Amino acid sequence: MNDDYEHLLQEKALLSQQIMTIEEVKKIIFDAIEQRGHQLHVLTLEDILISIHSLSSNLQMELLLLHLDKALAAYK
């Protein structure tokens, strides 16, 4: 069980790092829009941000389920 718990902690760290990376990329995109928005295609920006949001949502769901697994592992 200790190996399972350790694996969950490693997976949580990876998911957290991925989510943080997405948030940083979103900040970079919004900074670029503020600086050069008039040169960029709005619908393409929307598509990019929706794709990034979808990826973030999927990772958040994985993290939620991981927290559930971790809580269940502690219960046993």
Overall shape: elongated
Spatial extent as radius of gyration: 17 Å
Helical fraction equals over 70%
Largest sheet: none
Q: How many DSSP-defined strands? A: 0
Quickly give the structural class: mainly alpha
What fraction of the residues are assigned to beta strands by DSSP? under 5%
Query: What is the number of independent domains?
Result: 1
- Topology pattern, helix = H, strand = E: HH
Could you list the spans in which at least 5 consecutive residues all have pLDDT below 50?
A: none
Q: What's the N-to-C terminus distance?
A: 9 Å
Mean pLDDT: 93
Total number of helices: 2
Question: What's the layout of helices and strands?
Answer:
Elements: H1 2-36, H2 42-75
Helix pairs in contact: 1-2
What does this structure look like?
The protein is an all-alpha fold and 76 residues long. It has two helices and no strands. It is elongated, with a radius of gyration of 17 Å.
